[in-house]
Amino acid sequence: MPFFVTKPLQIPLGCDVEDVTPKLLKLLRLKQSELKNVCLHRQSVDARNKSDVHFVCSYLVEATRAPQNAQPYVFPQDVLCEAKPRLRKEVVVVGAGPAGLFAALYLVKSGCNVTVVERGADISARQAAVKEFFVGGKFNSETNVQFGLGGAGTFSDGKLTSGISSPLTYTVFRQFVRSGAPRSVITSATPHVGTDNLSAVVANLRDEIVSYGGRFLFNAAVTDFVANNGCVEGVRLANGSTLPAQAVVLACGHSARDIFDTLYRAGAEMTFKPFAVGLRIEHTRKFINQAQYGELFAAHRDLPSANYKLAFNGADRSCYSFCMCPGGTVVAANSEPNTVVVNGMSDHARNGANSNSALVVNVTAQDMETFGFGKGVFAGVEFQRALERKAFALGGGNYVAPCQNVADFAANRLSCSFDVAPSYPRGVASANMRNLLPEPLSNALCRALEYFDGKIRGFGSSGVFTGVESRTSSPVRIVRDASFQSNLRNLYPAGEGAGYAGGIVSSAVDGLRVAMSIADPVERNL
Hints:
This protein is α+β, with helices and mostly antiparallel strands. The protein is built from 14 helices and 24 strands. It has three domains: 3-73, Alpha-Beta Plaits (2-Layer Sandwich); 80-270 and 474-519, FAD/NAD(P)-binding domain; 274-469, no CATH class. The protein is 28% helix and 25% strand. It is globular, with a radius of gyration of 24 Å.
């Protein structure tokens, strides 16, 4: 029997969004006997009218005839379920983030001998190292919030929102659920896994790859690429060993700066890529909930912690919220010693005292010249590094982060006390963030704050800033052709670090695309 997706239904808070058969029969104008199966397709919150906050839901239905107020639905292809062994190829995947894991899973199910090489630790050791650092312990430059099983996304909100429209997103979402993510990631308009769930999800992905014959090498940094006549034939590890390969998937992540240097020396074509930098803003979760849901519904038990998405397009540059973490915390996300980098994370419940997001401003190649970092491929990397070292100095050392009230940032003055208790785990010190960011970026943030205050009253005049948010995306792009290969043949740059993705879902999708091009180059006309 055919499936259909319904038009949206308004479901009041307090009602079971799964128990809507009478409403659907009326909407679809079907008899009970004609409606065979029903499941939730998409759920969102409509809070435009603060006196009537409700859910908006659409449903997938299986019916004996075509219903009214619904469209035919064809399930997308799940390429991981349909992958079959059909070739033997030695493949090395560099990096165990979303791009690397999904590439490895597709390739190993296609019959390849896959070795995943990860510079950081496996998940349990990684969690221990990160926890130790957060509570004041030593920093580990190889295993941290950026490096280790699962990549940078493991210590984040686990947001699965994405701006891409690839049909491969269907595969990614279902694989996450198969690996232990909540089923709500498939139906929610703002899906997220939660930091507390991500460790088990990436461990299950690892185990599935191993079950098909793949292997993992942890604490194994790549130091060089073995190349002959412009073709990559393997990688060399820090311990001196060499892994031969007929294909190398480079999914190193946006913070693997040493890999970028190594690749450039090897002759790979690379370019500067525009990115964004800024500060992490925190308000209380109660404030954001009240602003988004209104006083009447702010504490309603059926509503998730409120989200927001803000953007301001100025005359010269744009500023926008990024990686919003309702009920989350600000975390230490540096990958180099004596630097401070911040990011946000939250557990699945999103019930922390504060909500945070990055407020970032776009930067261009012209900015790099203006700020004194030249025209080189790595101008953005050096700009990031300079900001991160300055943030460390402003915090006074020991990975303490500089912090400032939002109102004081706008007024260009130090904060004597903080409006909101900062959640950054290594502690904060009062500092003027105007001394951290270049003046054009600070000015752009100030203009954006005024605009955002008109969207969410009090947003741009309350809360605290913690800095610096510098790792929004890769500042370089590793050029690849229509076959997904670098000019160094047999090298396949993938994911966010290569400059072709921005987040967990798009990175995983890019990993799949690269893997499919390796496994089926003729079939896919690549």
